[in-house]
Amino acid sequence: MRALPLSARAVGYLRHMLISVQDDGNAQTTLAVAGELDVATALELRGAGEQALADGAQSLVLDLSEVTFLDSSGLGALIAIRNAVLEAGRVLQLRQPSARVNKVLELSGLTGVFDIQV
After folding, report:
1. Beta partners for 14?
2. Strand 28-37 to strand 59-70: parallel, antiparallel, or no bridges (unpaired)?
3. How far is Cα 83 from Cα 22, in angstroms, rounded to an integer?
4. Which of 1, 16, 24, 85 is exposed most, by the fewest CB atoms within 10 A?
5. Contacts of 12 (CB under 8 A, 6+ apart)
6. Statement: residue 2 has pLDDT above 70
7. What's the whole-model pTM score?
8. What order do you get walking across the sheet with 91-95 strand by strand?
9. What would you measure as the largest C-alpha separation in the chain, in angstroms?
């Protein structure tokens, strides 16, 4: 894993997924997810989202541009993060979901549930 700037830190690498965390200093945290978001990695993303909220993120951005695969477990993690963010009265945005992620969101009828920035 390559070194990240001090404002960013690698949360973890499990199987085929990497999550990088970047805090902008203005209470916005971006989780950049790369690789496969599936049954083997969904809990790690969910934990990273919960940790960002615990660390005080008022706005959470999930950058999904590098996600190559999304299954129902990964979708469940996205929904769980969304629910936790809303319950905390904060803001969630999905940034540039890959074509595969976008397809799953469309097929599951969830495009209207998330704030999606393309």
Report:
1. 17
2. parallel
3. 21
4. 1
5. 18, 19, 44, 48
6. no
7. 0.86
8. 8-14, 17-23, 28-37, 59-70, 91-95, 116-117
9. 38
Q: Of 63, 65, 72, 68, give the one whose Cα is nearest residue 110.
A: 72
Q: Which CATH homologous superfamily contains domain 43-118?
A: STAS domain (3.30.750.24)
> Which token pair is 41?
């990695």
Summarised one tens digit per residue, pLDDT across range 59-82 is 999 999 999 999 999 999 999 999
What is the domain partition of the chain in residue ranges?
Answer: 43-118
The residue whose two tokens read 């599936």 is 38
Joined tokens for residue 116 = 């999606």
